[in-house]
Amino acid sequence: IQGIPNEARRTRVLRQDPENPAVVYAGTTEGLYKTSNAGRSFERRTAPDVVVNDVYVDPANSNRVLLATDRGGVLASNDGGRSFAPSNAGLSERKIAALLVDRRDPRRIYAGVVNDKQFGGVFRTGDDGADWRQLSVGLDGRDVFALGQAGDGQIVAGTSHGIFVLAGDAWQPRNTIANTRLKTATVKMRGAQVNIEKQVSEPPVEFESLVHALDVSGKVWVAATAYGLLTSRDQGASWQGGPVMDQGDFLSVAVQGDEMAAVRDDRVVISHDSGQSWWPMGAPTRLTHMRCVTFSADGALWLGGLEGLFFTRDLGKSWFWLDRLPLGDIGDLSYDAAAGRVLVSSRTSDQIYAIDPQTMTWAFWQSGYRIALVRAAGGRLVAASLNDGVLVGPPVPPVGGQTAGAKKLKPNFPFN
Question: Are 376 and 387 in contact (CB under 8 A)?
Answer without folding.
Answer: no
